[in-house]
Specification:
mainly beta, 5-stranded antiparallel beta sheet, about 45% strand, two-stranded antiparallel ribbon, 7 strands
């Protein structure tokens, strides 16, 4: 690809990495905030200055602010967008 991309993924498609998930297949960050929704919780996770923040589903009561966290994505759910136009890049 010869142009800047935006990577998009919904919070429900990001989860804490399971045991044995390879390091290079995870996103590494720090929990900023956790919102408990009863049966589940959503964590806001800072991934670093270049990547910014993401939201991810987490088990309630398992993580809190400032905790390190590794996330894995449902790779089939990742979407790519042209950064200049915002248009979705289908089939790429």
């Amino acid at each position: 690809v010869d142009f800047p991309l935006i990577v998009g993924i919904r919070p429900e498609h990001l989860r804490p990495a399971g045991d044995g998930t390879p390091f290079e297949r995870t996103l590494h960050g720090r929990v900023v905030e956790v919102e408990d929704h009863g049966g589940g919780a959503v964590a806001r996770v800072h991934l670093g200055e270049a990547a910014g923040e993401v939201a991810a589903l987490v088990p309630p009561g398992r993580v809190g602010p400032a905790d390190p966290i590794e996330l894995e994505a449902a790779v089939e759910r990742i979407r790519f967008f042209d950064a200049a136009t915002g248009e979705a890049l289908a089939g790429r």
